[in-house]
UniProtKB/TrEMBL annotation:
GO terms for biological process: autophagosome assembly; nucleus-vacuole junction assembly. InterPro entries: ARM-like, ARM-type_fold, Armadillo, Vac8. The keyword DNA-binding does not apply. Pfam families: Arm. GO terms for molecular function: protein-membrane adaptor activity. Residues 579-597 have a biased composition (Polar residues). Residues 598-609 have a biased composition (Basic and acidic residues). It comes from Panaeolus cyanescens. This is Vacuolar protein 8.
Length: 618
């Protein structure tokens, strides 16, 4: 703190020959003599208690400004070498010196206080004893050294959460913001550090914005000083957490994204990392998702994504995930070469968050385009998922199964996914401890079983291969979902059974018709209203826009009943030997009505199929 370079011993001894010495009070002369002895043995002296502290206190409260200077310099030098928790008896003389009108006393006293403010207990006590008011006065001092030490002390005090609100309400933010523009790099560095420390709560962020901090922080992104860049980038990243602040940034700072993109190429790893995190927070909004791509941010993000430094990988993966939310960004991201690095990160077992960001990005990239779905499968994403999904943490499983559910929406890819044996890992996951993993896995199986415009050549043998295995196979999974208290799971089960029956595959139809587990429960659902969905939650990934929530109402319960009746209808028709293939246009019973039309049936199928699509951007 503060570049205090004085030597206290020479300071005191030099004054023995000065003319003011006879004017000293007796206790002051004794204090000077005692302190000189203590300084000669400073390595073994505790200056924070007893006679050494008493001598310093006497000099601090003296009316003689030279003695005050000596005391302040002694405190600064002592605390530079040793910091420990202190009491009021130590802080009171320093706070008294802080209020001096002498610039040299102010400079040394604020340096000493800043040194002590490194200690957690001291941070709280300094504020409690009223240290903020004199520090704020010193921040507006015309002396740069005083400014630097005062701001540095406030920076240290602001690292304690209990102090942040008091600092924000003390009137310190306006002078801090002004000093962030200082021509002195030390003052600028301390001021931006203090502003950063004040961005960790919503209330303080709003007060910072009101104090005019945003344009200052954005301007200083172009500072030549790495520390200032880091402090400003991190502060803006924190400010951008709030939607209202992102809106203000979008309205007032048109160069922000370009500056942050440039900082991703900084020589400093910590600046690169924070720039990517700031862009990630900004990319919570659609405008910024597009602007990052427009500002050529993808190439820098791709470079960071392929780094060997975990913070860079994590920050860039999180940013790309948010950027990929916008449908217009899907193809640019794929064309920029992200697919293989993202797939490689699926096996990044050192960090679950990296895996989640990577798989969620792949899912987003697959959401809107058949071409992109094919590119993702061709790049090996599904094979990696199959190899990893049973071993990864639950959060990653949820994202992986949701991704497969999106890919399985492609009619052109269903056969390929089935041939890859994806059902072998999806079925065990329908019995996961996580309801999200269960639901996403079941949705993927349901999407694989459904195909618009089926052809006689469609091969459903893959479902026969997994009818009883692994872990009880499709048969046991469908039974669990049919008997679940969650209407959402019941809905998935009856929809999937309808698709399997309408495939026209004789073996599948026989498996369902002969099941003593499935048909009795289907008849129960067909005969009575489905109970409300339980509080298990939607089985869709929490990053989806679509969910099965519509099955919780009467309309959803009615759909379950209709689908159950459709199953019974097909099974009974097959039993009578009337048909042996898909009959999507056949009539079926609606609850409390006569025979419905084929158009009603198609609307029902479309409604449930849309509910099955986890292909959201999030």
């Amino acid at each position: 703190m503060g570049n205090v370079t004085s030597c206290c011993e020479s300071c005191f001894s030099g004054r023995r020959s000065q003319s003011y010495e006879p004017l000293l009070l007796e206790n002051e002369r004794e204090a000077v003599a005692e302190l000189l002895q203590y300084l000669e043995n400073r390595t073994t002296t505790n200056f924070f208690t007893g006679d050494p502290l008493s001598a310093l206190t006497t000099l601090s409260f003296s009316d003689n400004v030279d003695l005050q200077r000596s005391a302040a310099l002694a405190f600064a030098e002592i605390t530079e070498k040793e910091v420990r928790p202190v009491g009021r008896d130590t802080l009171d003389p320093i706070l008294f010196l802080l209020s001096s009108h002498d610039t040299e006393v102010q400079r040394a006293a604020s340096a000493a206080l800043g040194n002590l403010a490194v200690n957690t207990d001291n941070k709280l006590l300094i504020v409690k004893l009223g240290g903020l008011e004199p520090l704020i006065r010193q921040m507006i001092s015309p002396n740069v050294e005083v400014q630097c030490n005062a701001v540095g002390c406030v920076t240290n005090l602001a690292t304690h959460d209990d102090n942040k609100t008091r600092i924000a309400k003390s009137g310190a933010l306006v002078p801090l913001t002004r000093l962030a523009r200082s021509k002195d790099m030390r003052v600028q560095r301390n001021a931006t550090g203090a502003l950063l420390n004040m961005t960790h709560s919503d209330e303080n962020r709003q007060q910072l914005v009101s104090a005019g901090a945003i344009p200052v922080l954005v301007t200083l992104l172009n500072s030549p000083d790495t520390d200032v860049q880091y402090y400003c980038t991190t502060a803006l990243s924190n400010i951008a957490v709030d939607g209202a602040n992102r809106k203000k940034l979008a309205q007032s700072e048109p160069k922000l994204v370009t500056s942050l993109v440039n900082l991703m190429d900084s020589p400093s790893l910590k600046v690169q990392c924070q720039a990517a995190l700031a862009l990630r927070n900004l990319a919570s909004d659609e405008k910024y998702q597009l602007e990052i791509v427009k500002a050529d941010g993808l190439q820098s993000l791709l470079r960071l994504l392929q780094s060997t430094y975990l913070p860079l990988i994590l920050s860039s993966a999180a940013c790309v995930r948010n950027v990929s939310i916008h449908p217009q960004n899907e193809s640019p991201i794929i064309e920029s070469g992200f697919l293989q690095p993202l797939i490689n990160l699926l096996s990044f077992k050192d960090n679950e968050e990296v895996q989640c960001h990577a798989i969620s990005t792949l899912r987003n990239l697959a959401a809107s385009s058949e071409k992109n779905k094919k590119a993702i499968v061709k790049a090996g994403a599904v094979q990696s998922i199959k190899e990893l999904v049973l071993e990864v943490p639950l959060n990653v499983q949820s994202e992986m199964t949701a991704c497969v559910a999106v890919l399985a929406l492609s009619d052109e890819l269903k056969g390929q996914l089935l041939e890859m044996g994806i059902c072998e890992v999806l079925i065990p996951l329908t019995d996961s401890p996580s309801s999200e993993v269960q639901g996403n896995s079941a949705a993927a199986l349901g999407n694989l079983s459904s195909k618009d415009g089926r052809a006689p050549t469609d091969d459903y043998s893959a479902f026969n291969d997994v009818w009883d295995k692994p872990d009880g196979g499709m048969h046991k999974y469908l039974y669990r979902f049919l008997t679940s208290p969650d209407a959402t799971f019941q809905h998935i089960a009856v929809w999937t059974i309808v698709q399997l029956l309408e495939s026209g595959d004789p073996q599948l139809i026989s498996n369902i018709r002969s099941s003593t587990l499935l048909l009795p429960n289907i008849r129960t659902l067909a005969a009575s209203r489905t109970p409300s969905a339980s509080s298990i939650g939607t089985p869709r990934s929490h990053h989806s826009q679509h969910s099965y929530q519509d099955t919780e109402g009467n309309e959803g319960q009615g759909e379950i009943q209709l689908l159950s009746r459709r199953i019974i209808e097909i099974v009974e028709i097959e039993a009578d030997g009337l048909v042996s293939s898909s009959i999507p246009g056949s009539q079926h019973m609606q609850p409390g009505s006569s025979v419905s039309s084929s158009r009603d049936h198609e609307e029902l199928r479309r409604s449930v199929r849309e509910a099955f699509a986890p292909g959201s951007h999030r």
